Amino acid sequence: MKRLITKSGxxxxxxxxxxxxxxxxxxIDYTVHHGAVWxxxxxxxxxxxxxxxYRNAKGITRFPDGGIPQYxxxxxxxxxxxxxxxxxxxxxxxxxxxSWQSTSRSLWSVDLIFNDSVIYYQITPVTDWNWFxxxxxxxxxxxxxxxxxxxxxxxxxxxxxxxxxxxxxxxxFREKYQENNANHKADLSHLNKILKKAPLSxxxxxxxxxxxxxxxxxxxxxxxxxxKSVETKRAVIEQIIAKKNKQEIEKLLExxxxxxxxxxxxxxKEYDIFSADVYKQIEDLLKEN
Length: 289
Description:
Layout: H1 2-18, E1 27-32, E2 37-38, E3 44-55, E4 70-82, E5 87-93, H2 95-100, E6 108-115, E7 118-125, H3 129-135, H4 139-152, E8 156-159, E9 165-167, H5 170-184, H6 188-195, H7 207-210, H8 215-223, H9 230-239, H10 246-261, H11 265-288
Helix pairs in contact: 8-9, 10-11
């Protein structure tokens, strides 16, 4: 009986310690990989990008190295961005690669060619496929890597008019790459700047779909800077606050002003710094109403 009680007590303690292992705040982000290229008139740009959504570890799960986040979304794909209307679309998904490795751009090599209505692409691991094959620890892992190598160790062509994908001859791809890439290569910092015009919903980063929570909670953590994720705060403004009427938006700005006035010293300075962009984004919504 005593052993049973001890065992039960251990289970209860474990449940208590492990419950609430992750932050109540959602973090979302996207990363553009190197290798982006323009079409001939620079009206559109194509690139590979990764996106993630996660909840940070907290409490006991943070030790000893900060803990592994709970990932709610990991995705990598080929995208196209239209500069004229600031529209974004995913053309090809590479999630079979993500399930094997991760979305980190340091792991992937990307070669792209953009010939107006056709995009040629090849994505491969930075480390040679054969290295992974020799290091595979199980037969299932070995089969997975060999299958991915067979699929991705070749270039493809995406037709923008039909949405079809077909294999491309490697030698022809290399010739086209040498001819076209230098003239159409995009500056990554410039691309990241113009991508800010694309709503996060077009990335598929809809906060209430990824991590369902009451709108009031999302608004509260955004205007009081409880959630430190820059992109999550932007998504809340775009997807929740933007749907409010003028009076409701003005009330949120008033709440931010009132909250700021309750703070002093370092807390006030930190709030001023980290809430400035949020305040401006909400304030800009009034100009649209």
